[in-house]
């Protein structure tokens, strides 16, 4: 579950980088994670969200725990969709690019375009 937790926290890092994790973003995150990773319970997800906002870890701490490309792409895809739920803010976009640079992933790889 550590991998899944780190994946969710990368999504949270990006989508809350504008200073707000809106109700729209939370609903979208929950929907997308349960759809994409069915073995995660709603209770675990709620716990990880609470934990994220109580801790003060650097982005790298989360990113280093997601080592395979497929999982990195999933995290970035979920982050884009979650952050876009209430409009992708400039700060969220910058956080997204920071993660993309950390993992050396292009926008084209995320969107498939």
Question: How are the elements arranged and paired?
Answer:
Blueprint: H1 2-15, H2 23-36, H3 42-54, H4 59-63, H5 69-83, H6 90-103, H7 107-111
Helix pairs in contact: 1-3, 1-5, 1-6, 2-5, 5-6
Descriptive report:
- The chain has 113 residues and is mainly α.
- It has one domain: TerB-like, CATH 1.10.3680.
- It is 71% helix and 0% strand.
- The chain has 7 helices and no strands.
- Helix 1 crosses helix 3.
- The longest helix is centred in the last third of the chain and has 15 residues, at 69-83.
- The protein is globular, with a radius of gyration of 13 Å.
- 27% of the residues are buried.
- The model has no long low-confidence stretch (mean pLDDT 92).
Keywords:
TerB-like; globular; mainly alpha
Question: What's this model, at a glance?
Answer:
The protein has one domain: TerB-like (Orthogonal Bundle), CATH 1.10.3680. Helices cover 71% and strands 0% of the residues. The chain contains 7 helices and no strands.
């Amino acid at each position: 579950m550590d991998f899944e937790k780190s994946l969710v926290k990368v999504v949270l890092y990006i989508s809350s980088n504008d200073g707000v994790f809106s109700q729209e973003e939370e609903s979208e995150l929950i929907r997308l994670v349960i759809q994409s990773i069915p073995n995660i319970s709603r209770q675990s997800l709620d716990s990880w969200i609470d934990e994220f906002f109580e801790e003060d870890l650097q982005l790298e701490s989360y990113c280093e725990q997601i080592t395979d490309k497929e999982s990195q792409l999933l995290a970035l895809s979920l982050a884009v969709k979650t952050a876009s739920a209430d409009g992708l803010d400039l700060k969220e976009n910058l956080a997204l690019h920071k993660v993309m640079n950390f993992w050396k992933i292009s926008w084209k790889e995320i969107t498939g375009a």
